[in-house]
Amino acid sequence: MKHEPPRLRVSGLLHRGDSLVLVRHEKAGRAYWLLPGGGVEAGETMEHALRRELAEECGLRGLPGGEPVALAESIAPPRDGSRRHVVHVIYAIPLPDAPLLLPSNDPAVRDVRVVHRPELAELQLHPPIGRFLERWRSGDPFVHLGALWTP
Predict the structure, then answer these.
(1) Helix residue ranges, H only, 1-151
(2) Helix or strand run (H / E) with residue 114
(3) What is the pLDDT of residues 51-65, one digit of tens each?
(4) In angstroms, rounded to a whole number, what is the distance separating the alpha carbons of residues 80 and 57?
(5) How does pLDDT run across 33-52, given as a tens digit for each residue?
(6) 0.85 cut: is pTM over it?
(7) Which residues, in sequence order, are CB contacts of 12 under 8 Å at separation 6+?
(8) Do residues 12 and 35 touch, judged by C-beta distance below 8 A?
(9) Are 123 and 33 in contact (CB under 8 A)?
(10) How far apart are CA 115 and CA 141, in angstroms?
(11) Cα–Cα distance measured from residue 21 to residue 43, given in angstroms and rounded to the nearest whole number
């Protein structure tokens, strides 16, 4: 079996009070929600990748810097003789009072929405970090969420 090298993904936990930003992706006929973000390209810092992805997926630019608050991994079961492995680094970034969410430039993104934490239970999140997002508060210590996988 071929093991693909781990892919590094950064995402923004964009928060204000009881609200945070999620994006809805559609791939292969399946829809799911996740924190905005994406893969780190060769030679790119994680912070630069996060700023690039937030601009592409949400139209957000010039946000204050964030700090890493969580780490998770998604290791897919073997498929077609290979196995996908994603390492997720989650950065907390406070949202300004009036964020301007613009249409996404990412063809996989179907919606960008500010949601309230109680709504998280109704959404299919990838990776499955709903419980973490419901409980997380600014100032919480860094947490390792472990290996998570949602088929």
Answers:
(1) 46-58, 130-135
(2) strand 109-116
(3) 999 988 888 888 877
(4) 29
(5) 999 999 999 999 999 999 99
(6) yes
(7) 21, 35, 36, 37, 50, 53, 54, 63, 66, 90, 91, 92, 93
(8) yes
(9) yes
(10) 23
(11) 27
